[in-house]
Amino acid sequence: MDNPYQTPGSDPTKPEIRIAHTKPPGLETLFSFSGRVPRKVYWGALLLVLFVWCAILGTVFGIDGRQEPSTIDLLVMTVLFVPLIWISLAINAKRWHDCSRSGWMTLVGVIPLIGPLWIFIECGCMRGTPGPNQYGPDSIK
Questions:
Q1: DSSP one-letter code for 52
Q2: Is 136 helix (H, G, I), strand (E, B) or coil?
């Protein structure tokens, strides 16, 4: 019987078991068009973009109750929307890459009714290609 008061030891000849983790989204994940992202990162990034988008619109149109935004408001809004659009396009392209498709499939979204539904089902709901593909290694082990 083992001594319960003995200090735990490890065998240095046995390799350590490491659990693979997906990297949290960083700047390269948000702004680069290369690589793959899993559904979790895809939804997180899109929800972040949606939250920031709504916050900007709420700030410009909702705080002081004005009917028309000023020129400065429109300029600031435009400057802030450019990175949000870029992030949305990059995340969508990477999600298509995870499904072994070209990032240009993002343009499917311009097809009325069918396009957004297709993107929602394939990018938002379906798992990507298991294992490595031409766009990089699988991010989920």
A1: H
A2: strand
**Separation CA 58–CA 42 (nearest Å):** 24
Three-class DSSP category at 133: strand
CB 10 within 8 A of CB 131: no
The pTM for the full model equals 0.72
Q: Is residue 22 a contact partner of residue 41, using CB atoms and an 8 Å limit?
A: yes
User: Taking a C-beta distance cutoff of 8 angstroms, is the pair 93, 85 a contact?
Assistant: no
Q: Which of 83, 93, 85, 80 is nearest to 42 (CA)?
A: 93
- Tens of pLDDT, residue by residue over 79-104, are 989 999 999 999 999 999 999 999 89
Whether residue 60 contacts residue 81, with contact meaning beta carbons closer than 8 Å, is answered with: no
Q: Three-state SS for 46?
A: helix
